[in-house]
Amino acid sequence: IAGTPVVFNVNGDAPGRYEIYQYQISNNTTEYKIIGHWTDQLYLSTDELQWPGGSQEVPSSICSQPCRPGQRKKTVKGIPCCWHCESCDGYQYQADTYTCKMCRFDLRPNENHTGCVPIPIVKLEWSSPWAVIPVLIAVLGIIATLLVVVTFVRYNDTPIVKASGRELSYVLLTGIFLCYATTFLMISTPDVFVCSLRRIFLGLGMSISYAALLTKTNRIYRIFEQGKMSVSAPRFISPASQLVITFSLISVQLLGVCIWFGVDPSQAIIDYEDQRTANPEMARGVLKCDISDLSLICLLGYSMLLMVTCTVYAIKTRGVPETFNEAKPIGFTMYTTCIVWLAFIPIFFGTSQSTEKVNFLSQI
């Protein structure tokens, strides 16, 4: 009746004949629409197919899409053919299809987290504002110091220069010069030689300055204390004695530095932890000398001791006659220096180990 031959397959079954419908929405109405049929094989009109959203494209018939580079597969429990894609974030990189691993401490992941690349190394550059400002201050200080030295040399035999204590004045000017010159060492590219010079001269300039001032204030104090008891002059107030006392005080600083060299030789290191930011793109390694905060404070500790002792003597000599013009300027200098150091220590320990800290130290 249908006009088709009646046949049977080897199993004695008649071949299947099916109409294939799809449930579609058309003009806000729903209907089943014939999109093909089956007669021994599939006949499908793909132009008549509709998919959610009105798309004409056949949706992908897979459980999970392939993961992008830098993503690992996290399999779904009980469904081994399905997975979720998880990005390797932070300092991780894609080690294999299913694993993310951390980059080595001196490396960071590349742009798509498929491998690791070296972290850039930075140091304080001479062109940086953090270096230019201290250098300008240091140059002005050195020029001013040299002008004073030239003035002293020119008027070396005048009464006012002799009265100021020429020998200790030259020692004091040497210490001031070293304090300013150390700025250039702090900005220079760290290596074993530069780091060794930093250890030597960072505290040496201040030790020389404070040792000279301490010897001056001690001499003034002993002179006036002795004058209250007798008319005889106290011992060790000659220029030669003053120099011996000063250099003895300075030698303690040098001895401490030598011991430090023996216990912990100087070296330049690259610090990757200080600038290890949450964003790997901003990570940097800082090239610097291997000097810890504690070592630095120990290095400057002797200078602090000299400074405090000198301040004590400055307080004791505050009542000397007005015509004795050395004591009060020295006292004023030591008072202000104590205030600077009291501000410097907490600020120094409150800041992170960084290039800015090195610059801050050089400015102080």
Automatic annotation (TrEMBL):
It is found in: Cell membrane. Coiled coil: none annotated. The chain crosses the membrane at residues 130-156, 168-187, 199-215, 294-315, 327-349. Its main location: membrane. Gene3D superfamilies: GPCR, family 3, nine cysteines domain. InterPro entries: GPCR_3 (IPR000337), GPCR_3_9-Cys_dom (IPR011500), GPCR_3_9-Cys_sf (IPR038550), GPCR_3_C (IPR017978), GPCR_3_CS (IPR017979), mGluR (IPR050726), Peripla_BP_I (IPR028082). Residues 130-364 form the G-protein coupled receptors family 3 profile domain. Keywords: Cell membrane, G-protein coupled receptor, Glycoprotein, Membrane, Receptor, Transducer, Transmembrane, Transmembrane helix. The keyword Ribosomal protein does not apply. SUPFAM superfamilies: Periplasmic binding protein-like I (SSF53822). This is Metabotropic glutamate receptor 4. It comes from Ameca splendens. The gene is GRM4_2.
